[in-house]
Every structure is written in structure tokens, then in C-alpha cells.
Amino acid sequence: MSVEDPCWREWMRAAQAGDRARYAALLKAVLPPLRRAARARWPRAGAAEIEDVVQETLLALHASRHLYDPERPFMPFLFGILRFRGADVMRRTHRNMGRETNIDDVPETSGALATNSKVEEGLDAVTLRAALSQLPPGQRQALELTKLQEMSLEEASAASGMSVVALKVATHRGIKALRKLLDGSG
């Protein structure tokens, strides 16, 4: 733990009384020890994670500044917040790591960020038209109007005579059926 500046306790007391200047000075003064403490506690964390921990700590300090007892040292109060908020940030970060791809690590020419690659391989207008022709007339019309002609639901409703709700249902069912046909499972 860092050595506490004796002014910090007074600045926090003043901040509790509404002194914005002293509160700003306190926040500026505690940033370096907070960053050092976060790096020491989570040595494998990246710079962005450490900064997230520091920012979450400062936000929590702001929200709970009324709980600080000016008769007690300030740094244990601050580092207690750091410990709990930092654990939350690290947990959230590691939980999301399996679901996210850091795009900074992917080359610009990589196909890793491509979407719908299985469907788009070899899919051409002839194949799409053939699959569309196998759909029931209502689904086919709904897809042609909303997806191919890119009409709004209101426009497609007026053109087809179908209600907006019926058009949504037909479009949803048509897409589902079209996927099965294009994947070869239909």
C-alpha cells in the first residue's frame, strides 16, 4: 500500500462538504498510486484493463464518498474499493474473453471477421431465385418486397395487401425456409 499524503484525508473531508476544487485535487493525486496498486494486484492485466479498474474505482469512490469516515485513514478506504471493483472488472473481462475477438490482433486481410461465409460461398442470383421459387407464394412475395426490393413494412403491406403483422410472419417464415433450402437440408 502507498504512503498516504496527510492532505488527502482533509481533501476528502472537504469534498464531502462540497469543495469541488479539493475533490479534483484529491482525484488527481490518487491516480498514480491507484494505477500502481492495480498493476501490482493484477500483473497479467493489460493497460486497458488496468485503466478500467482505475476508472471503476474512481466512479465507486464518487458514489460512496459519503461513507468515508474522516477520522480514519483514506488509503485503506480507497484500496478497499479498488480491490472489489477491480475484481468485478477482471471477472467481467475474463467472462467476455471467450465471446469476443480483439480486432487489433486480426490482420486486415483476414477472413476471420467475415460473416455468413458458409451461405455466401457459391450463392448466386440463380440459386437464390430457384430457392425463392420453391417457397409458398405469401412467403416469396414478402421476401421479394421487404428483402429484395428493400421496401419498408408499410410500403410492402400496401403493395401486397397483407397486414404488417402478416408480412412480418411471412418474412420470418420465408427466411427460415430459405435457409433450409440453401443449406441443403430442405
Please tally the helical runs, counting DSSP H or I stretches of 4 or more residues: 9
User: What is the terminal-to-terminal distance?
Assistant: 65 Å
Q: How would you describe the shape?
A: elongated
How much helix is in the residues?
55-70%
- Per CATH, the class of the largest domain reads Mainly Alpha
Mean residue pLDDT? 84
- Sketch the major β-sheet: none
Give the low-confidence spans: none
Q: Provide the number of structural domains.
A: 2
CATH architecture of the largest domain, please? Orthogonal Bundle
Question: Explain this structure to me?
Answer:
The protein has 2 domains: 6-101, Rna Polymerase Sigma Factor, Chain: A, CATH 1.10.1740; 117-183, Orthogonal Bundle (Arc Repressor Mutant, subunit A), CATH 1.10.10. It has 9 helices and no strands. The protein is elongated and about 80 Å long. The chain is mostly helical. Helix 2 packs across helix 3, helix 3 (47-64) crosses helix 4 (74-97) and helix 7 (137-148) packs across helix 8 (153-160).
Helices, strands, pairings?
Layout: H1 6-16, H2 20-41, H3 47-64, H4 74-97, H5 117-120, H6 125-133, H7 137-148, H8 153-160, H9 164-183
Helix pairs in contact: 1-2, 2-3, 2-4, 3-4, 7-8, 7-9
Give a summary of the structure in a few sentences:
It contains nine helices and no strands. With 186 residues, the protein is an all-alpha fold. It has helices at residues 6-16, 20-41, 47-64, 74-97, 117-120, 125-133, 137-148, 153-160, 164-183.
Keywords:
mainly alpha; 2 domains; 69% helix; Arc Repressor Mutant, subunit A; 9 helices; Rna Polymerase Sigma Factor, Chain: A; single chain
